[in-house]
Every structure is written in C-alpha cells, then in structure tokens.
Amino acid sequence: MESIVGMLVGREREQEVLSEFVRAPGGRALVLRGDAGVGKSTLLERVVELAAGEGQEVIRAAGVEAESELPFAGLHQFLYPLRSSIDQLDGGHREVFDVVFGRSAGAPPSVMTLGIAVLDLLSLVASDKPLLLVVDDGQWLDAASTEVCGFVGRRLTGSSVRLVVGLRSDVPSGFDTAALPALPVTTLSEDASERLLDRHHPGLDPEVHRLVLDEAHGNPLALLELPPYVRSNRAGRTPAELLGYTGVPLPQRLQHIYGARIKDLDAAVRAELLRGALDGVRAGTAAGRPGGSRYRMADAGEAAALGLLDVDPLTGEFVFRHPLVRSAVVQMATPNERRSAHTALVRVHGDDLERRATHLAAAAVDPDEQVAAALEAAADSATRRGGALTAVAWLTRAAELSESHQERSRRLGSAAYIAGHSGRLGHAQQLVGSNTGPGEDDSPSSVVTSAYAALFEEGDLRSSQRQVFASIERMRDSGVRDRDEELTRLVDLLLAINQYVGDAVMWERTHDLLHSLGDAVSSHSRVYQDAWGDVVRRGAGVHERVESALARLRDLEPWDITRLGVAAYHVDVLSQYRPLLERTVEREVENGAVADAMTMLHLIMLDQIAVGEWDEAERTGHRTLDLTTSLNHPLFVYHTRGYLGLLAALRGEVEQARELQAMVDSWARPRGVGFLTQIADAVGTAAALSDGDHEAAYLYAIGITPPGSFAPYAHQASRTLLDLVEAALATGRAEEARRHALAAQQAGLPDISPRLALLTYGALAMTTTDPQEADALYEQAEAHPAGAAFPFELARIRLAHGTRLRHTRGRKAARLTLTLAAETFGRLGAPAWTERARAELNATSGSVLASTAHLAALTWQERRIADLAASGLTNREIGERMHLSPRTVSSHLYHAFPKLGVTTRAALRDALGKVPGDQTR
C-alpha cells in the first residue's frame, strides 16, 4: 500500500507539525481545522501512519451527522475497543462507564466525572503502549462526547496519550470553545496545486488545466475531482460552461459533481448508498459502532468504480470516499426513497431504542400510534441520559404521529413540560399554544406551562397558585381516580408554589384536595407534600421514603432527583445525595433541564454551607447567580441572593449580609413569597448574632416563629431553633429560651432529622438549670453522629458548654471544649465566633488581676462604642451617633470583646464596670 506521505503535495509545514506532535514525549491534543475537501482526512491518515511507525496504538472515531443528537454516540467509538481494560479500573469509574454504555441504572455522569474516568482509562491503556486517538469530522460529534473530548484533551500533559481532531471550519462545533491547540489546514499554493493536478491528471488540455486551477482555488479535492467530471460531461459543452458556477461555494459544486456520478448508478446501488448515508457510514477508514450494528453496504462495486466509495483495507467494508459524497447521496434521493431507506434501517436497529425510533419517525408519513409510542420511549431514555432537547424534538414528532387528539395533546404537553424545565419557557408556550384552540387555555398542559412561566419569570405565585389549584379540582371533579401524568405535574407544581408562598391556609386546603384524590397522587408527590410544607408536624419518616425513592434511579427524571433532593434538605440528609446532584447538575446545565439544575446548585450550596465548605459554597452561589441572571429567572435570582446573604452572615460579613437581606426582602415580601422572606429573616438573625447584637437577633428570630412553638409551614422555624435560644439567653429571656427548647423536644424534632436532634439537645443543655442534666445533654449533643456533618452548630454548642464549664468547674475543665470550638470556628472562617471562643479560652488561662490589666488596653473609641453597645444601642444606631459605618462599629466590638473577656453584648455592662473610665489609650 502506498505511503500517505507519497500522496501529499505542498504540505511540508503541516507534516513537520504532525511529526513533532507524534514523536515528542508527553501527551497532547491538536485540532486540524479547514474547509471541506482541503485535505484534513489525508493529514489525519498521515498522523496514523506516523504513529504506527512509532509503535503507538491507534483508535479512531468519526462524527456523523445522523448521530449528532445521540448522547455519547461518538465517545462509544473510543470506549468500545477499550472495554476489556475498563474492568481493571476501580469500582467508581466502572460504574461511570456502565452508565454510559447503558448497563447501569445510575444517573448520567457529569462532564468532569466522566472526563476523569476516561483519563484514567486512557492512562491505564497507554501504560503498556502509547495511544493515539483520532477523530475525523469532529463537527458532527454529539455534544456530550465533544465536551468529554475537550475536557480530556486539555489534560493530557504528562501522559502517553495523544488526541487529534479534524474539523470543518464552516460548521460550528463544541470544539470551537474547547481551547485545544489548532493547526489551520489551508488551500494549496499555486505551485503545489499544479504539481498535484499534474500528478493525478497528466496530459490535461491546457484550457481545462487552467480552468480547473482557477475553479479549485487550491482545494485538493476539487483538483482531483473536477477533471474527470469535465471529461465525462463534455457533450458539446465547454469546460467553462461545466465549471462556471458563479457565486456557488466550492463544496456545493463538488457535491454536484458527485451527484452526476450518483445519477449513473443502478437504482439498487443508489438505495444501498442511501441506507449507508442515513445510518452514518463515514468517509475514510471504517470506525465500527459498538456492537457492530452500523449498516454495511454490499454489492456497491459500481459506486467504488466511479470514485464514490473506497474499501477499508482493515475490514473490507465499503466507506464513503468523502463526507460530501454522503451528503450528495441524501440530497439526491426522493422523499419516498429516503422513507424506504429508513424503513430498512429500522430492522437493523431493532435492539437500539433511540436509533430505531429515529428511523421509525423518519419513515412514517401518516399517524401511527406504534411509531409515536416508540418515539415517546426514546424521549424518556434521552431525558434520563441528559438529552432533554432531543427529547423535546422526539416528543413533538410523536405528537404529530399520534392517532388520537388525546394522545397528541398529552405528548405535546410532555414536550412543553421538558422544554420548560430546560429553561425554554417560550418554546414550551409555543408547543402548548399549537395544541389549544380558542377557549382551551385551561387545559392541564397550558396551566402547567403558563404557571411555570409566571413563577420563574415574574415571581407571580398567587395567581399561579389559584390557577393550578382550580385545574386540579377540575380534573378531580371530572372523575380522575388513577395516577395521571398531567395530574402529577399539576400536583407537584402546586406543592412547589405552596412551598414558596408558605401560607398555612392554602397548605391546609391543598392537603384536603390531595386527600380527596386518594391513590391518584403519586408516592413521590406524597413525599414532597410532607417534606416541603410543615416538616415539624409531617416530617417523621421522610428520610426513609426519600432513600427508598432515590434507590430506583433508573425510573427517575431530572426533576424527580431535584424534588427528592429538596425533600432531603428539609430533613437534613442532603449530604449523602450530593454526589448524585453533582453528577447530574453538570449534564443538565450543558444540555438538559436547566431549571432543575438551578435548584440542584442551590442544594449543593446548602450542603457545602452545612458541612463547612464555605469557600466552595460561595463559588457555587456566584455560579448560580450568574446562571439564574442570564436566564432571567428572578425567583431563582433572589433565592440565590438569600443563600449568599446567609453565608455572608455566618462569615461575619455583616454589611454584605444585610445588603443582600434587604434586596431579597424588598422583592419577596410584596409578592408574598414567604419562603424567601423567612430566609431574609434568617439572614438578619445570623448577621445580628455574628455582630453580637443579640437583641436584634431575638427580634428577627421571633419574627420567624414565637418562642415556645414552631409556626406551621414556616420552614425556617425549626432551622433557627438554636438562634432563638441563644439570643433569648443573651438578652435575659431565660424563660422564653427554656420554653422554646422544651417545645422542640415535645415536637419530636430529634426524630425528624439528625441536625434537629443536635440542635434540640444543645438547646435543652443551654437552658436547663440542673447541672447534671446539662452535663448529660451536652455530652449527648457533642457525641451525636450528626456533629461532624454540621460543624458550625456543633462548635456553637461546644462554646456554650465550655462557657458553662468555666463558670461551674473551673478554667481547666473548660479548656478542651473551648479549644475545639475555637479551632472549628477558625477553620470555617467565622471571625466573630472565633473571637468569642478565644476570649473564653483566654479567660481559662490567666489570673483575675492579669485579666483586669488586659482590660485596660481598650482604645478610647473601643471604650466609647462598648459603652453605647452596653446601653442597648444597635451597631447602626452607634454608627449614626459616632459617624461610623455599622461595619466599622462591628470591627471595634470584635476587638473589644476579647479584651473585656466577654462574648455577648449582655455581659458588656458588668465587664466595663471593672475598667476605670480613664484606663484607655
């Protein structure tokens, strides 16, 4: 077989780059980018030849337009030859590949998770022999595969793996933003064009020779294909008449040339080529699909003789000589010929749900319920694999092929539902609008779509709530008794709206409505009903139900995972499901249910806050804010700001926290978004506690729930248990603090969630007057398994315990507990809490006289601010009086508290009484 180097003309620079690419040590990636026919495939063959000469293993893949919407179709081509090596990886990576190959029910992995697994697999394979991965026609690779290849290509340094990708410059591709090194493949020079033309077509008529050079413009494929076209089509026409396509791009001219040859083929051969083209048989060396299910063209020697096909030297199979041949074959076929070819391909892919459905849909003309059902099943599969947009297209086609209006309506509703969850509310409304006539805008699908639009884009909860509630009532009154997809969507939407509104009366009406529906309400909806509303009164056993539901991942859509994740948050078991959310969210942000991705990011951020990963939580919060803002979803924008405000409050960034609190509150309160106004009040509570302003903290906390009870349907009521107790104790309201702690115990909070157990034991320990009971309760709290998962709450309980120990048992007994608290606060990045813990710790190690001497180190301004704070003024009031910002006041108090040996504002008056007024500096 002739060496590729012998076929190359005028590519000296490109060959130098490719030689260096193959032979230099270390892994790397390279993109060859150029116009159709410019020679990219030939250069890729040269790379393969060079790699073979260096003893490297080569694995090839090709993007084909027919598979560009099938998730992971391109990646399969790389992975399938390596499947024996996958078994040598660790269990986690094997699970990832099982999902990609469809052997597992797990959630589809994120780009990062899959990319890391692919990198490990490639490194394993290349440890025995250097590896070259070759992708031709990368512009047609599916989005999921493109993302993973880009991720891998950027991380090959230090390995023995090389990746080279050929791209058409006139077709947009995910590789355009992959930031991989590129080698432009340009047209040939005039001299090289002449040499190539003379080598392959010697003795051309001078007129034809000149005209071909002028028309080819240095495109190698044109230089090879134009002369035989002229020779075979003269028929009295001049070469100029044959080649003079004024204003027509060269690829289209070449396609026309191939079309002329295709016309001369026997009908059976043309049909064979059409089946191959529609099934994605590629150009160049064959790259078999996993399982070998790609159509194999037979009895096509006539096409090969005309230069339309080549024969793969490795497999002996026919392959298209160039992608433009494949395009010409499809474009020249009549609609009936294409439908006939698709029908034949249905039989080829009998075991492949998505490919079979694709060909069924293309073959159908009239409504066909069997085909529509197959497309609907394929859409379900695509949704679970992260292809929500593909699912919308298939469901829309399924609706077109439905035999009854009812089925058409249902499938269009499903398409609209997925489009809405994909952040494409405009498209969703178009789909619903195409299915409703005058006076039909109250259909379930229309109500769901319009309510989501009002909820996400306008924050209009009350009207959406009434509309959805009425629609469910109509369905109930019409006799719905079995589980119905549209009913489930309405119920879940109503529960989500209720969660945001937080209105007790509407929640009770909803419970009555769902009770009247009986078994027509799904088990998942029942979980949401109990977890999202009043978790104090209905949350017992939710954890186990969430765990049971998430154990059946194969049956879950992205929105199911999201909603169950929200339920897990409400019962404080989110951490165990965070890996699932992280795997799912990246996929959905790129090409899936973006609306659900926003909630998943909220959940990830909340868990990062809970476990003490505050820097990561801030990054997640800002990423979510960017996403929600770009999609123009105000509800999610302010929701995100609320969580960022809560994080700022915990970190002692009080001014920023209060600014975000005010933004959220001013948007949410007029709209009746109780969920967000409660978050705003929780931000105010946490900021005041960080600031040492316990009076303000108490007022914010009782705005959420009165002491001694937990307001129904107030989701922050139980979450701020410790805040209210601490603020009440620090402001001399010991009776209210004790009453609230006992209410938590009587409400059974320890049985609802591990965090609530920790908080309840801590609150009871802080408020009891019995020393022995306090010791037992503190021990129970600090030994609770949930302590490690909620380090901030545990550190607060330890701080309170250490303070009590110092007063009741002496300094030595308190040191370890206070040290643990101070170290945790410091690690978390909570400076105000760290200073308090250190002040208590300092008080365990010096004499009273030494401490008194230390107290005299107050500056004049610190003394003045401390006096005003002791009189009951807030930081803002002190700032107004002294012409300082509240943040500056807070900073001075942070310095004054440890000097005075106190941790609360309530203790300031007594401490200041021990310091003479003139002992300042």
UniProtKB/TrEMBL annotation:
Q: Which GO terms describe its molecular function?
A: adenylate cyclase activity; ATP binding; DNA binding
Checking InterPro entries in the record gives: AAA_16, P-loop_NTPase, Sig_transdc_resp-reg_C-effctor, Tscrpt_reg_LuxR_C, WH-like_DNA-bd_sf
A single GO BP term for this record reads:
regulation of DNA-templated transcription
- Using the record's annotation, list all stretches that form the HTH luxR-type domain: 851-916
Q: Which Pfam families match?
A: AAA_16, GerE
Q: Which SUPFAM superfamilies match?
A: C-terminal effector domain of the bipartite response regulators (SSF46894), P-loop containing nucleoside triphosphate hydrolases (SSF52540)
Q: What is this protein called?
A: Regulatory LuxR family protein
Q: What is the lineage of its organism?
A: Bacteria, Bacillati, Actinomycetota, Actinomycetes, Kitasatosporales
